[in-house]
Amino acid sequence: MADVFFGVDNTYLSRALKADIFQPYASPLLAAVPDHLKLDPQNRLLPVDFGDVCLNYDKKWFETRQLTPPATLEDLVKPAFKGLAVVQNPATSSPGLAFLLATVGHFGEDGYLGFWQRLRDNDVLVTDGWKDAYWGQFSGASKGSRPIVVSYASSPPAEVYFAEKPLDEAPTAAVTTPGSCFRQIEFVGILKGTPRLALARQLVDFMLERTFQEDIPLQMFVFPANREAVLPDVFRRHTRIAEQPVALPPAEIAAHRERWIQAWTETVLR
User: Fold this and answer.
1) Which of 113, 132, 134, 250 has the most CB atoms at less than 10 Å from its CB?
2) CA dihedral of residues 11, 15, 17, 22 (deg, nearest 10)
C-alpha cells in the first residue's frame, strides 16, 4: 500500500525496526547528517528532522508579576509555580511521551516518579494532547490561565512567524538548560517489498536534500537533519537548540516505555 514511511520517531524506533518492515538504504545525503541523529547503523530508518521537547513559558505573565520564570525541571515543583503548568498525557500525546522520557533521563528510574508526585501535588494540569494544552490552556497562546506548557524549543519562532502584527521579540520562551529537554528525531524508511525501489530512494534523497530540508522549519517548526540546510531568519533569532538534551537509547525506551507510562498514569492520574 506504500513505498516509503515517514514519521517514525526515536520513542518508537526500536518497535518499528523489530517489525522488520524496512529495507536498508545508505543515502549519499547521510554524509551531511550529524552522527548523533543516526540511530540505526543499518540505515533502515534515516533521520529527517529533530525537535527539542521542553517547557515553554509566557514571558509577559511572569514579567507583570515580577516572578522569575522556570529555568529547570526542578523549578516546577516549587510553591511559587503551584498551578501554573500544563503538560500532556504520555499515553495519548507524542510531546507528552517525550517529556516523560526527559524526566526519566534527568531524574533516573528511581527519581522520576517522585518528581511527578510532587508535580501532581503542585497542581499540574494534564491534557490529552498538545493542541488542548498549548492553544487551550497556555496563556502565552490562548485565553488559558496556565503560563507554563510542554511544547517545543521551536515554538517561540512560530509565535513570531504567525503573529498578526510584526514582533521584534517572541512572546514566549523555551527552557533549554541541560537535562530539561528531550530530543525527538523523526525518520524516513523504505518499506520492504516496494516495486518502486528506485523511486523510493529518490524520494528519500529528496527529503534529505537542502531544498526539502530548508523548507522543514517553517512547515513543521522543527529543525532539519541536514547540517548544510540554512535556517530561516525567524528561527535563528528566536530559538535555541538544547546543547545537552536528555538522550535515552531507543532499545531502552522500547524495553520500558509501557511500564513507564503505566507508572506515570498510576502516579499522576489515579
Assistant:
1) 134
2) -100
C-alpha to C-alpha distances, 1 to 22, 23, 192, 196, 261, nearest whole angstrom: 14, 16, 11, 12, 32
**The three three-digit cell numbers of residue 140, written as one number:** 502565552
pLDDT at residue 270 tops 90:
no
Q: For the segment 49-88, what is each residue's pLDDT rounded down to a tens digit?
A: 999 999 999 999 999 999 999 999 999 999 999 999 999 9
Task: Supply the mean pLDDT for the chain.
Answer: 96
Query: pLDDT tens for residues 87-118?
Result: 999 999 999 999 999 999 999 999 999 999 99
Distance in angstroms (rounded) separating the CA atoms of residues 168 and 234: 10
Compute the distance between CA of residue 264 and CA of residue 41 in angstroms, rounded to an integer.
32
Query: Per this entry, what is the length of the chain?
Result: 270
What CATH number does domain 4-50+185-238 carry, 3.40.50.9100, 2.60.120.10, 3.40.50.1820, 3.40.190.10?
A: 3.40.190.10
Q: What is the third-level CATH fold of 51-182+252-268?
A: D-Maltodextrin-Binding Protein; domain 2 (3.40.190)
Q: How many CA atoms lie within 13 A of 149 on its CB side?
A: 30
